[in-house]
Amino acid sequence: MKRILITGGAGQVGSYLVDRFHEENEVTILDNYSSPTRKDVPEGVSVIKADIRDDISEHMSNTDVIIHTAAQISVVRSMNEPFFDAQNNIMGTLNLLEEARHANIERFVYFSSAATYGNPLKVPIGETHPQEPLSPYGASKLAGEKYCIMYNKAYGLPTTCIRPFNIYSPRQDPSNPYSGVISKFIDKVSGGASPTIFGDGEQTRDFIYVRDIVDLVDLMISKRTAIGESFNAATGRSTTINELAEIIIDLFGKELKADYKDPLEGDIKHSVADISKAEKLGFVPKVDLRKGLETFLEK
Ligand code: UD2
What Pfam families does the record tag this protein with (predicted)? Predict the structure, then answer.
């Protein structure tokens, strides 16, 4: 039984972490509820309605583990509002690290992003691949990661960082313009409309179901070897956008053809992770794409 504080606990990833951990642990959500994915709170879970930049020192003495998922998550918004992005993702993270430094924290798990790699020089992308972000979002996530690793080296805070690739879950909101391709395709196809593919559809991504992300976080909390390290969170399998569209159309039993549009400017062609470092920690991605997508039908 640990006392776990989950920042962004009302969000897409945070809410699944709450679900996983709350039965056997004492879980507290810290969220400003600016864009909650889930508004209701599971029984027994406490809520601190606050921003990650607020003074939350009074709560630190009751915390063993911090899982920091709260962030400004939109690449597009970061391009238009880089200060807003940095205030949330850099200053918010630094605030939490400072609070944690003065408390007796067993583990601080930071959600970084595959966006920190920028345009891959080669695939699969291992953790030692250069991190040359192409957006303020990628830069702020990288800054947060650097602070976390530095806090481990300089202050001995037991930090560990996760770099998720393309996460999907039925809780991703398709009406959010910043949502990923899977929620957009599902939204269209389930309503009988053709999915829109940008470019020739031969670009690839490494899609990871949110429950596999939760499994990796669990390992990062329990394994001492995770401290001071960063881990790719992905499946190591690449899927083309054409394949994705086919699977979703098939799953919903529709007779549809994708609608092709011009490629998006700056779109990354191929992205797939080398997950051997996470595998050494004991990570095994369990949900294949089709199985993960089937959970959208149960929604
Ligand atoms: C993901 C992240 C982004 C950033 C980036 C780093 C999401 C939603 N976005 O961008 O935040 O971390 O990785 O590399 O997780 N596409 C279509 N039709 C659509 C929507 C998308 O063809 O209706 C294509 C799009 O052109 C791209 C692929 O699908 O090639 C994936 O798009 P995405 O927006 O889900 O994610 P990505 O990898 O571009």
Answer: Epimerase (PF01370)
In terms of DSSP bridges, do strands 230-233 and 65-68 run parallel, antiparallel, or are they unpaired? unpaired
**266-298: per-residue pLDDT in tens?**
899 999 999 999 999 999 999 999 999 999 988
The structure's pTM equals 0.96
Atom of ligand 1 nearest to the CA of 185: 23
The b-or-e profile of 132-153 (16+ CB within 10 A means b, else e) is ebbbbbbbbbbbbbebbbebbe
Q: Residue type at 267?
A: D
For ligand 1, whether the C-beta of 245 sits within 6 Å is no
Q: Does domain 168-206+237-297 have CATH number 3.90.180.10?
A: no
Mean pLDDT of 54-67: 95
Which pLDDT tens digit goes with each residue over 163-221?
999 999 999 888 877 789 999 999 999 999 999 999 999 999 999 999 999 999 999 99
Mutation to probe ligand 1, out of 112, 116, 121, 166 (largest number of atoms < 8 A from CB): 166
